[in-house]
Design brief:
By secondary structure, the chain is an alpha/beta fold. The chain folds into six domains: about 25-160, Thiol Ester Dehydrase, Chain A (Roll); about 190-350, Thiol Ester Dehydrase, Chain A; about 370-460 and about 475-545, Vaccinia Virus protein VP39 (Rossmann fold); about 560-600 and about 610-730, Rossmann fold, CATH 3.40.50; about 790-860, Medium-chain alcohol dehydrogenases, catalytic domain (Quinone Oxidoreductase, Chain A, domain 1); about 875-1060, NAD(P)-binding Rossmann-like Domain (Rossmann fold). Helix content is about 25%, strand content about 30%. Strand 30, helix 16 and strand 31 (about 675-680) form a beta-alpha-beta unit. The chain starts with 13 loop residues before the first helix and ends in a 14-residue tail after the last helix. GO terms for molecular function: fatty acid synthase activity.
């Protein structure tokens, strides 16, 4: 009989069915799509480890296996590719564009067999015209919590048949092709690297790449002496055969592999080193990334085909302290652009500035004071170490505690120990005097030169009979830190360690050996200070100190036999924590004598009655001792003579810290003084850690002068978490850079300028900006004003003098741009009176003046109630230039109301000025926008109808022609800093005009339509050049500029950076 399937007698959940019938299998770059989430906001889960993705082990930064930032980008690429196959199976994917990608933190990959769970979340962008536009976020579960590691926007561009037919390749004879080929051409001279040399140098700086990521074949860097041009690097990047490294010798089809993209990032690393010095480099953000995806599904793309060769060009666009921005273009062997990136921000972890910066000023004269946890009291969970500490956290405390470290690493050597330690020292601004690899003659010596190439390490042989190092090495008891990777090497460590040094024992995770068994194997000569397991990698880290020998006293017996406690308050008025501290100190067998500071007796020779007795002064009243006249003299007597003092006071109020400055001065004047100050938070006054600190300080005070006594800290703080902090001075890079920018050359005979503080708007003297500024960042950090000669009686008859409210910071151009209030007027001036608000320009090479003077014809009135001072000052020169240029371009036979001027980049400063100037002349003003959001801004802020705004933001490699909905244009204004989009070119009339404002991008039409654009005139207009060449045009344009200033919309000026002086 036939089967009856009309009724189902079992139920299958949606999750089970979707997982069983899922469209996409596991992908080794993005994982598996999660069925628990909705289809409107898809999400992928990826379990990452070194076993399933062995190529990750080849990406090591500062001794740690770090998930590459390129991996986050490739996850987003593959997610869009899967969504395209699901939503638009009949359409191909032409380009994937990513914008505003930010790498928030580094993702550390644990050692085998641990895994990290990654999740990629995609949220549709509703206001975008593209159906495949999403904002994405990559999170990972590490150390028991979720953290976000990367965010950005991704957009998939679908291919269409019409555009494929209309697409045309660039004619090799066209200007566009000539410009592109010339930009790709390598120079004949430059610094060249082969792959092995390049990657060995990167490894010595902290970027250690294995075979899977060593994909740069050769690299050439432009000459450093090539001034006036941005540094460039050209390289050949090979697509690796990742499938050969996979466990099953198989790799899923993909658009772009992280190893390939990361190899492209390597091209910029030599440029970073030249600018910022040696140090590891990591990308932190990408402004825009366009990736060709047309042949990705067939696995025949130049970006994914193993063995493909790509030509990569990286160009530096901007640089600042320890960070630089670059643009990058990758082309395939056939000359087609397959990847384009702009705004790649990379950060260097170089410990110091490069040599050129240090040569400007070898003296670092500016320092900052910082407080961090004391290594001697290091413990987990109180703030001194995080809840899940790492070895790097311990190294940070070691570097902060001691400078010029002598470090020994005991055999057997770990390949990563020296690299990890030295890179952490560099990261935390520490210093290492020596780093020795210590082994015995019988120890097998591994080939360490390969993985320690470029690091300042030396081999030392330990004499087993005498337990000492050979004569060519440091003596015994000379090492601050001894690193060990086995318990068996600890007996030899004892002979090398300083008395108060530290041994850092780092053991690989072991399932068969519990921690208690490991501790039993530690020699009795050591005592454990700290023990923890790293959350990532599960290594066991143990901090060991030398135990005191039998002939030495422990903490309890080392305390002085007699201590004097001196309080500010009477016993009945003293806080309870003071009495509690005295009781706990007396419990250890120390005799304690109490007294009030005002009742201390001094002998006639003005010396303290008991010189050698340690004194604990407790500042226990609301009024500090140094603010109390009754006891001030008694406190000074104690500080002037041979005394051993421990000064204890609360951390609040701030007046309690008066003793800090007095103590530093007293130490400088009295060599016999031994004074330690402790400031404790109110919440930590009853903690045991305070008693431990008091005992430690008293022990040090009692033993000072002995050879084996520990180094004495002079200042402590105990915060609210009972964390013991110590201070250190460190060089202030920011302040030293400011000093260098204003410093007179070393051998200059010119006197140093005398700096004076005064109000900028003061009418007592005339001042203006001096020096030279290369950028706004430099100007903001080093504004220096100087006096300039100006008399109250030399105001010209047709001139005005204004009191500056805002001025434009430029690179000291000869043109000054001001907004202010008229202060005085010349005899012939009738258009202004004192008190009028004006915006004006000066052509007298004086910039940043507080009381500038200019002809009245160079000033335009405005209303401060409708326009900010800063905006008015910033807009005057762009408005003059736009008014002048559009006036000269007006066709003689055309009526102003019939002229159509398309503005590209209308939201920029010069774009807003062009819109205002065009409206003032009565032009029809359409505009272009990259997306709907920008179109809405243009419509609302610039009052342009939406029907006159056309979108052109569809990313494409190469650019494709568009169907235009714009009216036929007489003028195109290029004001956005980028090339005019094809949609605007197709709207041009015959005999039309192109106006290019202050942009580095050439004005080149699409190659497919070059024949159409005959008899088109292109004008390149630089605002400053217009005013210099024709100063009289300012007066001629005065009325039209005033109208444009009134009609223009200058709200939400996000491009302006305001510096408050």
């Amino acid at each position: 009989y036939s089967w009856d399937h009309s009724v189902k007698h079992w139920h299958e959940s949606r999750l089970s069915r979707e997982y069983r019938l899922r469209r996409e299998p596991y992908h080794d770059l993005v994982g598996v799509r999660m069925t628990e989430t909705s289809s409107t906001e898809p999400r992928w889960r990826h379990m990452v480890d070194l076993k399933t993705l062995p190529w990750l082990a080849d990406h090591v930064i500062d001794g740690l296996v770090v998930f590459p930032g390129a991996g986050h980008v490739c996850m987003a690429l593959e997610a869009v590719s899967q969504l395209r196959r699901q939503l638009y199976p009949n359409k191909g994917l032409e380009v994937v564009a990513l914008h505003n990608v930010v790498f928030l933190r580094a993702l550390i990959i644990p050692q085998k067999p641990s895994r990290v769970e990654l999740q990629l979340s995609m949220r549709p962008i509703r206001d975008d015209a593209s159906p495949l536009a999403y904002s994405f976020s990559v999170t990972a579960f590490l150390d028991g919590k979720w953290d976000e590691y990367c965010t950005g926007r991704v957009q998939g561009v679908l291919a269409s048949a019409e555009e494929d037919e209309a697409a045309a390749e660039v004619d090799p004879t066209s200007p566009a092709a000539a410009d592109d080929s010339q930009s790709r051409q390598r120079p004949y001279n430059g610094t060249c690297w082969e792959a092995e040399e390049l990657y060995n140098e990167m490894s010595s700086d902290g970027n250690t790449y294995g075979p899977g990521f060593r994909n740069v074949g050769s690299l050439m860097l432009s000459e450093e002496e090539d001034e006036g041009r941005a540094p460039k690097a050209w390289a050949t990047v090979h697509v690796p055969n990742v499938a050969a490294m996979m466990p099953a010798q198989q790799q899923a089809v993909h658009i772009l592999h992280p190893a390939t993209l990361d190899g492209m990032f390597h091209v910029g690393i030599p440029v970073m080193k030249r600018l910022h010095g040696a140090g590891s480099v990591m990308p932190v953000a990408i402004g825009e990334l366009l990736v060709a995806a047309a042949a990705a599904d067939d696995n025949d793309s130049a970006l994914s085909r193993p063995g493909s060769c790509l030509d990569v060009r990286a160009t530096l666009t901007s640089s600042r302290f320890r960070a630089s921005d670059m643009d990058m273009v990758a082309t395939a062997s056939d000359g087609c652009v397959v990847l384009s990136a702009s705004g790649i921000e990379s950060r260097s972890l170089a410990a110091h500035a490069n040599r050129d910066e240090e040569a400007l000023d070898e003296r670092n004269i500016c320092y900052e004071l910082s407080w961090q946890a004391d290594l001697d009291f290091l413990r987990v969970g109180c703030g001194s170490l995080p809840t899940n500490p790492r070895l790097a956290d311990v190294i940070r405390c070691i570097c902060f505690k001691t400078a010029n470290l002598n470090v020994a690493e005991m055999a057997p050597f770990s390949k990563n120990m020296a690299v990890e330690f030295l890179n952490c020292v560099s990261l935390y601004d520490g210093t290492v005097a020596t780093y020795d690899l210590v082994h015995t003659v019988s120890d097998p010596i591994e080939d360490t030169d390969k993985f320690l190439s470029g690091y300042p390490v030396h081999h030392r042989v330990l004499q087993q009979k005498e337990s000492s190092i050979q004569s060519d090495g440091p003596r015994n008891k000379e090492y601050h830190v001894v690193l060990a990777s086995s318990v068996e090497s600890l007996p030899d460590s004892q002979t090398l360690l300083k008395t108060h040094g530290i041994v850092v024992l780092v053991l690989k995770p072991s399932i068969t050996r519990p921690d208690k068994d490991v501790l039993k194997e530690i020699p009795p000569a050591f005592q454990v200070q700290l023990l923890f397991h790293e959350a990532v990698g599960s290594r066991l880290v143990v901090l060991l100190r030398l135990s005191l020998d039998d002939d030495k006293l422990d903490l309890e017996l080392a305390l002085p036999s007699h201590i004097r406690v001196v309080t500010h308050a009477a016993p009945e008025a003293s806080p309870s924590w003071v009495a509690q501290a005295v009781v706990k100190l007396s419990e250890v067998g120390t005799k304690i004598t109490t007294a009030r500071l005002g009742e201390l007796e001094f002998s006639t020779d003005d010396a303290v009655d008991v010189d050698e007795m340690p004194t604990v002064i407790i500042d226990d009243l609301a009024q500090p001792i140094l603010s109390d006249r009754c006891v001030f003299d008694a406190a000074l007597r104690l500080l002037r003579h041979k005394s051993r003092i421990l000064w204890l006071s609360l951390d609040e109020p701030a007046s309690m810290h008066q003793i800090t400055g007095v103590a530093r001065t007293a130490h400088a004047e009295n060599d016999d003084l031994r004074l330690t100050t402790i400031h404790v938070s109110q919440s930590a006054t009853e903690s045991q850690i305070l008693i431990d600190l008091l005992g430690h300080c008293l022990q040090v005070l009692a033993s000072q002068g002995n050879v084996s006594s520990p180094a004495a800290e002079r200042e402590y703080r105990v915060d609210a978490k009972a964390q013991i902090l110590i201070p250190r001075l460190h060089s202030s890079d920011e302040l030293n850079r400011v000093v260098r920018t204003t410093k007179t050359p070393k051998f200059s005979r010119k006197p140093q300028p005398r700096l004076e503080l005064c109000r900028f708007s003061s009418t007592a003297q005339h001042i203006s900006l001096g020096g030279s500024m290369k950028s706004l960042d430099a100007a903001a950090n080093s504004l220096v004003f100087q006096r300039h000669a100006a008399s109250e009686d030399d105001l010209a008859r047709d001139a005005i003098e204004i009191e500056t409210r805002a001025f434009v910071l430029s690179s000291l151009d000869s043109i000054g741009e001001y907004a202010g209030i008229v202060r005085r007027v010349g005899q012939d001036v009738t258009s202004f009176v004192p008190g009028d608000a004006v915006v004006a320009v000066t052509l007298d090479a004086v910039v940043g003046a507080n009381l500038p003077r200019m002809p009245s014809a160079h000033a335009v009135p405005f209303s401060p109630s409708t326009l900010q001072w800063t905006v008015a000052a910033a807009m005057i020169v762009p408005l003059l230039a736009a008014t002048h240029a559009l006036g000269n371009l007006l066709l003689p036979s055309a009526e102003p109301t019939d002229v159509v001027a398309i503005i590209d980049g209308s939201l920029s400063v010069i774009g807003r000025a062009a819109v205002a100037a065009a409206k003032a002349r009565g032009f029809i003003v359409p505009a272009t926008a990259t997306d709907r959001k920008e179109a809405q801004r243009i419509g609302s802020e610039l009052d342009i109808a939406q029907c006159n705004i056309v979108l052109h933001g569809r990313p494409s490699l190469p650019r494709r022609p568009y169907k235009s909905s714009l009216p036929q244009a007489d003028i195109i204004v290029q004001a956005g800093g980028k090339r005019v989009p094809a949609v605007a070119w197709q709207s041009l009339k015959p005999l039309s005009q192109i106006l290019v404002f202050d942009t580095s991008e050439p004005c080149i039409p699409p190659a497919s339509s070059l024949k159409r654009f005959r008899n088109v005139t292109v004008h390149y207009c630089h605002a400053m050049d217009v005013l210099r060449a024709n100063p009289d045009c300012v007066a001629d344009l005065n009325a039209m500029t005033a109208l444009a200033l009134q009609l223009g919309s200058f709200k939400s000026m996000e491009h302006l950076a305001v510096v408050n002086v």
